[in-house]
């Protein structure tokens, strides 16, 4: 059997990005990870603040944000500009040769504008393909790619794309060349069996248990698409998937949830 | 003698970026250029507009802008976010595998905060080094690097850096591995012998002629640092340097100024 090099893909969400101190602490841990690695980051509340500052009113449909043109511009400015470059510069200071990406850069993540939806969510893209060849070239140069939640349609249009989905698609695309460990960091310690108790982490969530807990409504709302991404990755060749707090990337941390088939 | 591959480095200024149509036309011409190439772009008026929108008041000292922290954030958002990603996505649509960079990305351009100046211009960086090895790896992958006017100090701080200087430093750093042709595009057809006559282009500006015209004050103000960059590049190994309008990148254009030693 072929021995593939290991690749760790870490996704962090808005909660880490919104706190300067938490982000700094996380980046220090991330920088200390040995081997090939990729960071994927979400947006946080900065985009909302900048949109407000510019007098742009966010548009919602049943609680879900619509990405109209002004909001897309703000997302590009904030995610690809402010946040992505701050993270990149900080990782450089920690001796990681970080390189920031939108999906347009190097044609890394090609997507298409979401269609056939009952509602037009605006400039939102669903992933079509990942340029894993270029990812590989860069990783072998010891570059640490840092992805934000912006992709492109190949026709000149940037699109807003869910960061969880980006992390999953990267993990799947790289699993031909690498043994991929995918880590989803969020605000809880893992998948909880009791939403009110942060210590009720399910250590190992098999697909059977997941199906059962979903039916019992123990797992619901935001966790569902997150876990769908996990199982999708696992069925498509990703070796291991974990969900937990940013702390979990520290060596020896065992508080998180391992998602398994 | 070694036969180096050719590399074209094109710098465009704010005037092209401020016009959606001009930028589109330029990018079409740039995309059609054969061989290895790099694009460097300035900022344009969008940053000023966004700063105004956010209620940030620009600070000036004797007509020169001071880059305070809020203005640096706006520069990062606008140059590295909005403009750089728009250009990258447009070039992708033109079948150029563009990849956007600040100096922090891939540690491409390391700079240090300007010091010992009579005035503190704020978060402005002077270039220390260029990661030409990574530039070469990417060019050989047929990637088209697109640089904006942001660098970093290696300690986590992003810095505003003149785009002309970035283009010059890239050209010099790449001239070991490539035969570099450096093209500075600006709002005139070339260096003029009569500032009021756009048709008075000096076809070939030798260093002797430059020195003479500078003493006669025919060449003055903004043209001086631009030409200093040109002669610096030429003395440090860059093969050819041209100054002219964005039109000059079209094949067969002969209206611009060739700067020569």
Automatic annotation (TrEMBL), chains A, B:
Compartment annotation: Cytoplasm
Highest taxon in the source lineage: Bacteria
Site-annotated residues for Transition state stabilizer: 11, 226
Enzyme superclass (EC): transferase
UniProt-listed Enzyme Commission number(s): 2.7.2.8
Pathway annotation: Amino-acid biosynthesis; L-arginine biosynthesis; N(2)-acetyl-L-ornithine from L-glutamate: step 2/4
UniProt cross-references to InterPro entries, sorted A to Z: AceGlu_kinase-like_sf, AcgluKinase_fam, ArgB, Asp/Glu/Uridylate_kinase
Residue numbers binding substrate: 43-44, 65, 160
Gene Ontology cellular-component annotations: cytoplasm
Gene Ontology BP, a term: L-arginine biosynthetic process via ornithine
Keyword Amino-acid biosynthesis: yes
GO molecular function, one term: ATP binding
Keywords, ordered alphabetically: Amino-acid biosynthesis, Arginine biosynthesis, ATP-binding, Cytoplasm, Kinase, Nucleotide-binding, Transferase
Catalysed transformations (reactions): N-acetyl-L-glutamate + ATP = N-acetyl-L-glutamyl 5-phosphate + ADP
Keyword presence, Cell inner membrane: no
Residue ranges constituting the Aspartate/glutamate/uridylate kinase domain according to the UniProt record: 6-244
Protein family: Belongs to the acetylglutamate kinase family. ArgB subfamily.
Role according to the record: Catalyzes the ATP-dependent phosphorylation of N-acetyl-L-glutamate.
Name under which the protein is recorded: Acetylglutamate kinase
Lineage, top ranks: Bacteria, Pseudomonadati, Bacteroidota, Flavobacteriia, Flavobacteriales
